[in-house]
Amino acid sequence: MKKHLKATAHANISMALVKYWGKRDETLILPQNSNLAITWDQYGSTTTVEFNSSYKRDIFTLDGQEFKEGEEYDRVIGQLNLARKLAKIKLKAKVVSQNEVETQAGLASSASGAAALAAASAKAAGLNLNSKQLSILSRQGSGSSCRSILGGFVEWQKGSKADGSDSYAVQLYDENYWPQLCMLTVVVSTKKKELKTRAGMKQTVATCPFYPCWLATVEQDLKEIKQAIKAKNFTKMGEISEHNALKLHALMLTTKPSIIYWLPETVELIHQVQNWRDEGLEAYFTIDAGPQIKILALEKNVSKIKQRLNKLQGVKKVVTLKPGKGVEYLSRHLF
Amino acid sequence: MKKHLKATAHANISMALVKYWGKRDETLILPQNSNLAITWDQYGSTTTVEFNSSYKRDIFTLDGQEFKEGEEYDRVIGQLNLARKLAKIKLKAKVVSQNEVETQAGLASSASGAAALAAASAKAAGLNLNSKQLSILSRQGSGSSCRSILGGFVEWQKGSKADGSDSYAVQLYDENYWPQLCMLTVVVSTKKKELKTRAGMKQTVATCPFYPCWLATVEQDLKEIKQAIKAKNFTKMGEISEHNALKLHALMLTTKPSIIYWLPETVELIHQVQNWRDEGLEAYFTIDAGPQIKILALEKNVSKIKQRLNKLQGVKKVVTLKPGKGVEYLSRHLF
Fold first, then answer.
1. Are B319 and B185 in contact, with CB atoms under 8 Å apart?
2. Which residues make beta-bridge pairs with A284?
3. Can you tell me the ipTM of this complex?
4. Torsion of CA A290, A296, A299, A303, to 10 degrees
């Protein structure tokens, strides 16, 4: 088993078109609703995990900064404990992680980070898990990370069992299915968000008066977007995505106290995208738990959209993504 | 009857703290939910109506501009017809109206305008209506105008009868009840809105997935805000108002197609008001069907709030209002 004590994994970010917001089980991280995402290339996380008897405690370094306590540290330990429990080992670990994307700015760094950590720690611990088992392991570290295990178009099936054994991600189509599809991530603020996703979700489930109506309609969004993706109907897929994102933010606005991730620049871009559509340039936005706008577009329109974005004051950075691969193991370690 | 053929009325704007959004009867203008507003001073509408056999058609002038057709014109004719039917007259009328507030910018000009028109046309037609009858008459021209008939704290009871005879405004407290209470209207855009309130409401009732949850919770907001007003509990009143306004905008965002009245400046001010509160300066916002922010505050904090507002780039104009009177008849006519 010794040869497996060190492993490195890379995972891409997962951005949902039909969103995940709210858990039915806080410990196992079981979602209130099934949801659908695309795993995107370029932006991701790389993590090396080494279990070694020489470590007296778990060590965690993210983007060059060591965490010795706090929420981030606790989540890493929690994920390591899951792998240790499965592999029946008690060794402490060193974890070094790098994000290719801004951390905690609504760019899904927690999804790619937790997926890479789950994969690296499982492999380092000598486990040989299939993608379903790895998805379940990863889910318990950070819910949406279970989708990052797989490439392309991914559904996270909420499942119904209390132990979470049927709540995992399944690939609908791989990353080569729809090569014309692009997502432009538009960064308008690099400030870390004040309220983290996990706390926000919990607050919504507890206090939001619209949450029952979200649950009553989100499965229909999911069904319709799956049909749209199957038919490669970009218009339909875009409309459902935009509406679902607005529903998500409507939930957050009406949570008590309100969760308002939008910035002035976010609203400016919302209006811009809708105006472009009125002018015949087809694009749809989605927004996650942060201020950044992500624009869904077909490849033929990307350069036009970029030109328009570059003229706007509030736009700090634009990166164009394409559907990307699932988790991969790397032979080159970070330490 | 001749002496009554000309009359002039003034009505103030009505700004809701628990909002009205959606009709259960489009013709009689019966609301889906009871709602609560304050009639505010300073901003209002003055309207002179004259019925005269010399007019060959109804003439309508608003803020110096004559309307000969279109939605505004049709609404005025509709209101005149209601008065003519009640008074059993067939004379054509000349209507001259002036708004003290920007028209169609989310500053409730349609409420004060329709209330002044209803009162002036009823009096000019020789009718002698009490405030309940006048409220019902006004409601049929523009729903929320029924609240502008009365001063101070006003509830528009939705009623349950199909003929609308029990759907009218009642005064809870007059304009002198809570003299410390102020509302700062903050104009961030003077552009006329593209989608008018009436069309937006209809679209929400037809397509918004959260509308059932709005209806299921809005009467509770109403009950609680009435208790807060009774106790002059500003904090509670403010919290309910802000939450209810966010619910309204969440409904609009998730209507198909989405109705997004917020501008970048709107979001900037939302964050500002919430930040001020965190710093101990108590203020709450409400937003109607437009981009403008209205800030509820106690008189002692108004100057501090104004200072902060005047430092913000997006703020075009700030006017501080106090609870105002209901409809009044003026002896000086506009023509």
1. yes
2. A296
3. 0.93
4. -60
Residues in B touching A249 (Cβ below 8 Å) = 250, 253
Chain A's closest residue to B255, CA to CA, is A243
- Please, are residues A116 and A123 in contact by the beta-carbon 8 Å criterion? no
Q: Do B210 and A247 touch (CB under 8 A)?
A: yes
| CB < 8 Å & 24+ apart, contacts of A70-77 | A71/A196, A75/A114, A75/A141, A75/A142, A76/A117
Instruction: Give the DSSP H or E segment for B61.
Output: strand B59-62
- The tokens describing B235, both together, are 């904090």
pLDDT in tens, chain B (335 residues): 455 699 999 999 999 999 999 999 999 999 999 999 999 998 899 999 999 999 999 999 999 999 999 988 999 999 999 999 999 999 999 999 999 876 656 666 778 999 999 999 999 999 999 999 999 999 999 999 999 999 999 999 999 999 999 999 999 999 999 999 999 999 998 877 667 788 899 999 999 999 999 999 999 999 999 999 999 999 999 999 999 999 999 999 999 999 999 999 999 999 999 999 999 999 999 999 999 999 999 999 999 999 999 999 999 999 999 999 999 999 999 99
Residue B187, min C-alpha distance to chain A (Å): 16
- Alpha-carbon distance A318 to nearest alpha carbon in chain B (angstroms): 20
Q: Which two tokens stand for residue A83?
A: 């792998």
* Contact (CB<8Å) A264/B260: no
Angle at A266 between CA A264 and CA A272, to 5 degrees: 105
Distance, in Å, from the CA atom of A48 to the CA atom of A170, rounded to the nearest integer, reads: 25
CA distance B11 to A284: 43
Q: Which residues of B touch A216 (CB under 8 A)?
A: 209
**CA–CA separation, B187 and B169 (whole Å):** 28
* Residue A296: C-alpha distances to residues A20, A182, A253 (Å): 18, 6, 23
Nearest CA in chain A to B220: A209
* B30's tokens: 């019966």
Please answer yes or no on whether B254 and A254 come within 8 Å at the CB atom.
no
Residues of A in contact with B266 (CB under 8 A): 267
Please spell the DSSP secondary structure of A165-213, one letter per residue: TT-EEEEEE-TTS-TTEEEEEEES--SPPSS-HHHHHHHHHHH-TTHHH
Reduced to 3 states, what is the DSSP secondary structure of residue A97?
strand
Give A286 to chain B, closest Cα distance, Å.
13
Place of tokens 């509820």: B296
| Nearest chain A CA: its distance from B319 CA (Å) | 23
Query: Which of B209, B242, B264 lies nearest to residue A213, judging by beta carbons?
Result: B209
Contacts of A265 in chain B (CB under 8 A): 264
B247 and A210 within 8 Å at the Cβ level: the answer is: yes
Q: Give the torsion through C-alpha atoms of A203, A207, A209, A211, to 10 deg.
A: 40
Chain B residues at the A interface, defined by Cβ less than 8 Å, are 209-214, 216-217, 242-243, 246-247, 249-251, 253-254, 256, 258, 260, 262-268, 270-271, 274, 314
In single-letter form, the type of residue at position A228 comes to A
For chain A, domains (ranges, CATH) are 2-175 (3.30.230.10), 181-321 (3.30.70.890)
Q: Do B213 and A212 touch (CB under 8 A)?
A: yes
